[in-house]
Specification:
The longest helix is centred in the first third of the chain and has 11 residues. 29% of the residues are buried. The strands form two sheets. The protein has a six-stranded antiparallel beta sheet with strand order 1-2-3-9-4-7. By secondary structure, the protein is α+β, with helices and mostly antiparallel strands. The protein has two domains: 54 residues, lambda repressor-like DNA-binding domains (434 Repressor (Amino-terminal Domain), Orthogonal Bundle); 110 residues, Jelly Rolls (Sandwich), CATH 2.60.120. It has six helices and nine strands, in the order αααααββαβββββββ.
């Protein structure tokens, strides 16, 4: 896979939006220094951190990583047609441990529904900074096990277990097991 420069892409998007690093930090609720570190490739963002920053720009992860993906009215999708939301975050890593792969079915914005095929390698974590956004989400664990924290509740879900919650509550996903965890989820309105 060709290396994707997250820092350069973020800087380009910020400049197109006409924002300084400080303005983007304020709009996204992250420290100014974090944006600087990411833009200069001295730090790789977690999925949660990158999503917060992109929220400050008003764009999705799909628009960030796959800006040239044409909109489609397709109804059915093959695995290779899913939109890759995260693999490019890890394009410089040799070791897959801790990697999260999120693939989106079709154009989430067009349907106001985001359906994801999620894979979490052992050690994968959406980040210490808990996710919070205006949505509702739910999913089913297909393989492996995943620890999900929602507000004050925390559980390790195994294949066949499921979840459903208000995404305004702080939440986090972690694979604390020794094998890949696979989840199929939905979120409305779309968040990533």
């Amino acid at each position: 896979m060709q290396e994707f420069d997250v820092g350069t892409r973020l800087k380009e998007m910020r400049l197109v939006a006409g924002l300084s690093q400080r303005q983007l930090a304020e709009a996204s609720g992250v420290p100014h220094g974090q944006i600087s570190m990411i833009e200069t490739n001295r730090s790789s963002p977690s999925v949660a951190s990158l999503r917060k920053i992109l929220g400050g720009l008003g764009i999705t992860m799909s628009e960030f990583f796959e800006p040239d993906t044409p909109t489609t009215q397709a109804v059915f999708f093959k695995p290779q047609e899913l939109r890759d939301l995260t693999t490019k975050l890890y394009s410089t890593l040799d070791d897959p441990r801790g990697k999260i792969t999120l693939q989106q079915v079709g154009d989430a914005r067009a349907h106001n529904l985001q359906v994801l095929y999620e894979r979490y390698e052992p050690g994968a974590d959406t980040g210490e900074a808990m996710l919070e956004h205006v949505s509702h989400e739910g999913g089913i664990v297909i393989a492996g096990e995943i620890e999900i924290t929602v507000g004050d509740h925390c559980a390790v879900l195994k294949a066949g277990d499921s979840y459903l919650f208000d995404s305004n509550l702080p939440h986090r996903f972690r694979n604390i097991g020794d094998r890949e965890a696979v989840v199929v989820s939905a979120c409305t309105p779309p968040y990533l």
